[in-house]
Amino acid sequence: MSNERSPYPPGYGAPPTYGPPHYPPQYSAHNPYQIPYPGRYPVPPRKRGRAILATLLLLLGCLLLPLGIASVWLHTAIMDEDGYVSTVKPLARDPAIQAAVADTITEQLTAGLDVGGLLGDSLLDELPFIGAPISGGLATLVKKGAEQLVATEFFATVWTTANRSLHPSIVALVRGEEGSLQIGQDGVLVMDLGELAGRVLKRVQDSGLPLPPMLQPAAGSGRIPLFHVRYLVEGRAVAQVLDSLWVVLPILALLLLTGAMLSAPHRTRWVAVTGGAIVVTMGLTQLGLLLARDLYLKAADEAGLPWDTSAAFWQVTTRTMVTAGFVILAVGVAMIIVGIVAGLVAGERQRRHPAGGGGYPGYPTHPGHPGYPGYPPGQSGGPISRSARP
Q1: I need a labelling partner for 222 at 20 to 30 A (CA). Which of 110, 236, 335, 374 fits?
Q2: If pLDDT is split at 50, 70 and 90, which confidence band does 384 have?
Q3: Are 156 and 93 in contact (CB under 8 A)?
């Protein structure tokens, strides 16, 4: 008989040999005899089904998450009158918008200027060199008045009033209804700021220069082409669906992501998995917004709109959607951190107090249990559970 000491507790034989090959012996306070773990157990069908269900819910939630953000943005920032006015109101203080409005009004007011009719054809024939300076001087004076006016609170008031009057036509455009919205063939939205044009001329007159009748506001003066809305017209069917589901989509996305974490077999791990999926989804969404911005600016440039004006309009109108995307992305990062930290804490707790003691069913887990390592040999040797029998 061999005098070698058995590596197993008194009264216990070798552990069951089912499952894949054994892992190396584990060392812990509850495993002083270095009993090898019997190996990784096969995943029960119930856990496998829960994992599949959690994966499906996670994919659907990530698919609906950007759609929910877009639907809320469309309804609150475009379709709602107060929301739309609040969204575009800061544009009245934007230097690019102010410069575009001043240049357009100046060009409209001075386009029909006839210096010959103003001075007389005979005088102009005798002094042809004075025509250009007079025309340029009047244009400069009108532009200076326009630039001064767009920097005042009056322009902000006119801008807000014009956009509030314009909003019903925008809603009609999205819904495919008849409206009074003026859109050119190039998809450019024309805004009526005729009141501003009249005030520009009044300011020039108040400066002491009598203006000729030909500089009085014409019927088309004050109509400013500012925004490019061709893509909104082409995608009105999608916009209608998003607007009708602006409450359902974000709630459904939240419920799907929550259900994915609750139905997962390892919830702590799936908190981090769900956070990672949210980060990837929001990262792709932000990338898609950048690509959409480039397409919009390119189309606006082809339509003849200034690049800085179009960029300012895009930045202001999509600010809430971009901000919401970054907030949700930060939430996803926080979920990853929480899931990793919780997993490390649970792993440390499992290392110190492993379930099943030696790592397989039936191993004695407390000193009062017969067969616990170090228990008096005369009181050990009890049978292990049936699930651990070979």
Answers
A1: 236
A2: very low
A3: yes
